[in-house]
Amino acid sequence: MRTTVGWQADSAMTLRRATVPRRDLRPDDLAVRVDYCGVCHSDLHAVREHHGAADPVLVPGHEFTGVVTEVGSDVSGFGVGDSVAVGNIVDSCGACAMCRAGQENFCREFPTLTYGGTDRRDGSTTLGAYSRGYLVRERFAYHLPAGLDPAGAAPLLCAGITVWEPMRALGIGPGSRVAVVGLGGLGHLAVKLSVALGAETVVVSRSRDKAADARRLGAHEFLVSANETEMDAARDSFDVVIDTISVPHDLGPYLRLVALDGTLSQVGYLGPVTVQTTDLLIGRKKLGSGGSGGRPATAALLEFCARHDITADIEVLPSAQVNEALDRLERNDVRYRFVLDLSDLA
Predict the structure, then answer these.
(1) pLDDT score of 292
(2) What is the reported pLDDT for 184?
(3) Residue 69 pLDDT
(4) Which of 31, 62, 95, 271 could form a disulfide with 70 if both were Cys (CB 3.0 to 4.6 A apart)?
(5) Can you give the pTM of this predicted structure?
């Protein structure tokens, strides 16, 4: 058993510096020095809902980049010194239909998550990348393409792949008309990716506060969702609507933006929703979703982002300011993703 240093949840719904246990290196493992880790809304929820000693140990962090420091005896695709990226899935059964199709994110036995998951070999709870070191199976690590900023690339492994996989599955490309609802961690990457894919891209937001940002990111138009005139004028006009809002909300106004035979892909809020059947019926509209991504799609995303020079818009903080990052994220005080610099963990 080895150890590293990281940020562990305590009973005060905050994180404290702690020694983090790690397993011994397995033959198919990479040992990774974690350099940068994105701060996801799911991290915030996990910390706020943690009850200290009454719950399993929690070390968040599931979108990170770093450098390989050691490789297991069976590893063939990586070497010491390689730059790598790791997302929110670190194992799967590898045998079910979903895994065989390259959709490990939908593993029938449920994928092993980077933190808060169950290790498939020893049954231990996985501890995340708000830490200086991580051990991961070679199959679930990705080469970080040269030229991609490692800090800005970290959020691609969760926020990026979450919007990328449904966008690719829905065939977004030249000639597509796409609306991105919500301009946050997910939404700003959806805009960048949609524009790079060649789609006419429109941002839908509650107010005009982010209109200038939307244009800077490449959006062609901006709609205010509270403006009934603007929303009515855009009715039935988008092939795909990517809904990235992370809290409960009415899907009706956004379904009404979808064109004939188009799709609303709801990727931000993962709880129960209520839909009026007529909002689907009128126009044969479809409601879909997506969650994270499989190994082929994640590798393709990183290659695409390298070709198009796409990374997240980030604010980098020393990891010692992790509680400040969570507090500000709770207030939506970030444009558009916090990334922790783990170099302050000796």
Answers:
(1) 93
(2) 94
(3) 98
(4) 31
(5) 0.95
Locate 209 and state its tokens.
Answer: 């506060």
Determine the Cα–Cα distance for residues 175 and 234; give it in Å rounded to an integer. 17
CATH code for the structural domain at 2-158+293-344: 3.90.180.10
Answer whether 267's CB lies under 8 Å from 162's CB.
Answer: yes
Instruction: Say if residues 134 and 14 touch (Cβ distance below 8 Å).
Output: no
Q: How many CB atoms lie within 10 A of CB 243?
A: 26
Measured CA to CA, the distance from residue 120 to residue 99 in angstroms comes to: 15
- pLDDT for the residue numbered 178: 98
Phi and psi for 178 in degrees, rounded to 5? Answer: -125, 135
pLDDT on residue 137: 98
Q: Within the chain, which residue ranges are assigned CATH 3.40.50.720?
A: 160-288
Q: Which CATH class is domain 160-288?
A: alpha beta
Q: 49, 46, 43: which is closest to 61 by C-alpha?
A: 43
Residue ranges of the chain with pLDDT lower than 70?
A: none
pLDDT of residue 263: 98
pLDDT exceeding 90 applies to what percent of the chain? Answer: 95
User: Where are the domain boundaries for CATH 3.90.180.10 in the chain?
Assistant: 2-158+293-344
Tens of pLDDT, residue by residue over 91-101, are 999 999 999 99
